[in-house]
Amino acid sequence: MCLFQFQSVMNYFPEEVLEHVFDFLTSHRDRNTVSLVCKSWYSVERFSREKVFIGNCYAVNPERLIARFPRLRSLTLKGKPHFADFNLVPDGWGGHVYPWIEAMAKSGINLEELKLKRMVVSDESLELLAKSFPNFKSLVLVSCEGFTTVGLAAIASNCRFLRELDLQENEVDDLKGKWLSCFPESCTSLVSLNFACLKGEVNVVALERLVARCPNLRSLRLNHTVPLEVLQKILVRAPQLSDLGTGSFTHDPDSETFIKLKNAMKNCHSIRSLSGFLDVNGRCLPAIYPICISLTSLNLSYAPGIFSNELIKLICHCKKIERLWILDTIGDKGLGVVANTCKELQELRVFPSDLYGVGNTAVTEEGLVAISAGCPKLNSILYFCQQMTNAALITVAKNCPNFIRFRLCTLDPIVPDAVTNQPLDEGFGAIVQSCKRLTRLSVSGLLTDQVFLYIGMYAEQLEMLSIAFAGDSDKGMLYVLNGCKKLKKLEIRDSPFGNMALLSDMGKYETMRSLWMSSCEVTLGGCKTLAEKMPWLNVEIINEHEAGEGEGEASCDDRHRVEKMYLYRTLVGPRKDAPDFVWTL
Amino acid sequence: MEDYSREDEGCPQLLDLIAKGGEWVGIRAVERSHGISEEKKLELRLAPPGGEWSFEESNTTISRERNGLFSLGPCPQNTVLKPPSPWQHLQTSYLHPVRRESSQLCSNRAAAETKAFSAANTAMHNTAQKRTAPATVVGWPPIRSFRKNIASGSFSKQASDSPDVAPSKVSTVEKSSRTPFVKINMDGVPIGRKVDLKSYNTYEKLSFAVDELFRGLLAVQKKSCSGGIKDEGDGVEKIGGLLDGSGEYTLVYEDHEGDRMLVGDVPWHMFVSTVKRLRVLKTSELSALSRGPKQGKIAMNN
């Protein structure tokens, strides 16, 4: 049956049926695809879509969002480019959520969930949010900034049906307000509360009472000011927790409080995910041994005070772990223990503990190889290491063909193979060749254009690639742009890629979400050319010097290398909130 | 951590390669426009290649360090136009190696420049690899500030050792990321003390506390050194002038980057967040130090 006939048949289905069918499509990608089939599907789909994901808040604007999806209930927005996490994007760049909240409030959108990543969230935004949407249920803020505990108080006070308040690694100005006490007595609906990133003290009495009156509470992550005594009392009140983030975990292990804590822990049969330990005494760790056996997720990456052998003892109890985030204090030896114990491991992240060269031993390629050999289900890794070898990467590639995410970060960005002194091209080449489902890759170490040839050739599913201090010439970038058909996000720093690579296939950028290039070889002229030819792209130059410096011909010299360029596809043209130091070409 | 002797070995070879110039320069010359003579660019000095950079300029870069203007890219064009050349960043980032070992600086730079040349420059890679200073490039390693703050409270030598040390010591060290108990040592006194910086909120109070902590100990030392001939009784000298260089002793500290700094320059809360240990040095020794290789750093940071 040809498409035309098929469509005619489908059009006989009443819209309600189509809508019902579309209900089964939960992924936004699937829904985006069905909207493209024909006008009537587009129409049915847009009226029935409740969850919208916008990967770059500047790709569209609030008006268009609301016009297309009037039944919107759940919105996810991402703002700043990823490298903002590493201080490469100056303050004031943008990513404000206020206009979105304002527009939705004015249009009577029945917003229930808002998830934001790398956005600027002011207290005014939070206040407006809290007062405009009576059914608001879930606020998740990841790596955001701009708000204080005043904004949190507004949320707590006004959102009567709040189920989830999840603050992950945000920069929050803690004005030591009593935001936690602002949850009214009538609030009993909390399911998830995470305030681990807050720096200030909370009212622990209010906290205990809140926990006591929320029987559906499943996830609770405390900040470091909550002492162990309080944790113990909370666990007694809420043995049904499935996800716990401890606050401070240090106490005299011989005290009565500690014994009570141990007993309370034993009673928490549902805990599957554990994190926190922001302030920890290693001798207190045995308290958690009873729950380790059921844990599927463990995050010890905020706890540099746990010694390697204590970590190892702990890990030995965690046989069902699927997700493990730790510091490199675990050492290669510890990773060997993980490999022998954690056969269900899927995701591993090993963070650096010693950034100032004080003398910690970090992990090396040995640990990675051990993990790859011992953990057959491993599919996602972030590994900060002292050194790496091609041989190790090749072995890892053979052992684990199932990687979806592979992010390797050598502490020295251009370190070569530790044994042969060769670039690490072959090692990464093996990874992309073997891991056919790889969607995210970060490379580091000494790398030439060759690695990009491999990536272009083999990484067919790759969607996000991070490059730093790598490559020899434009060819490297060209290999990637030509080869990786599914590439969505490309971020490059300190690599010798210039205009030739940038301009060779300008249409490519319309198929991608964004491109970041900093400290590369692209010039102002090259960026201008691109901006001219591609009206659907915003080509932004970040120029951090004071206005007045280098003005006149100097700043318009097209031969000048551009320090930071960020370009992204957009339906709505140059953004109006760009600060002085951002030029949209 | 790493084998420093290997580094020194590597360096002479490194110098040879740079001096040879020919092959290395030839390849690069095609790729870039140079405003400055190759030799000048490659000449070894405690500054980035290119003639125009001064410490003053690099000072502004230091203050803007956070904004990540770092690059290990090619040589600068001969222009005073903005944006600044990538080597400016190297200057800032290599402050540490500059102070410690100039050989390290040249190995760093060369490693950066020659990253594209694999087999040819294995000697350089050796030195690059053995380089131990992490975190000398902005935004590298790529972790969030949140984690950097945690890592800076790391417990260095203890982390991989057996912790069967006195538990009180363990918990004190662990607490140091929250309650800054820092060690303080004084010249001439073999026993150190610990201070809880949280209990002070000004430099004056700290200075007073130092006096209280060490006055007695110092007196004991002096007594035992002089064989007890001079009996000073209870009239022990106050330890003063710690902050302004006027006294016999001066207070310095070691920050999270391992550098020795004069106490008193930055706001108190900033000091508390970066201080790792304190030292009370003889003021006379301080000026001797100033004449040495550390001079540049001290001057820059005042």
TrEMBL record, chain A:
- Report the SUPFAM superfamilies cross-referenced here: RNI-like
Per the record, the pathway is: Protein modification; protein ubiquitination
Output the lineage of the source organism. Eukaryota, Viridiplantae, Streptophyta, Embryophyta, Tracheophyta
State the name under which the record lists this protein: F-box domain-containing protein
**Which organism is this entry from?**
Salvia splendens
The main location class comes to: nucleus
InterPro entries from the xrefs?
Answer: COI1_F-box (IPR041567), F-box_dom (IPR001810), Leu-rich_rpt (IPR001611), Leu-rich_rpt_Cys-con_subtyp (IPR006553), LRR_dom_sf (IPR032675), Transp_inhibit (IPR041101)
Q: Which PANTHER family match?
A: F-BOX/TPR REPEAT PROTEIN POF3, PROTEIN AUXIN SIGNALING F-BOX 3
GO cellular component, as recorded: nucleus; SCF ubiquitin ligase complex
Stretches assigned to the F-box domain: 13-54
The entry's keywords: Auxin signaling pathway, Developmental protein, Nucleus, Ubl conjugation pathway
Residues annotated as transmembrane: none
Localization terms from the record: Nucleus
A GO MF term? auxin binding
- State the source organism's domain of life: Eukaryota
Q: Establish whether keyword Nucleus is in the entry.
A: yes
GO terms, biological process: auxin-activated signaling pathway; pollen maturation; SCF-dependent proteasomal ubiquitin-dependent protein catabolic process
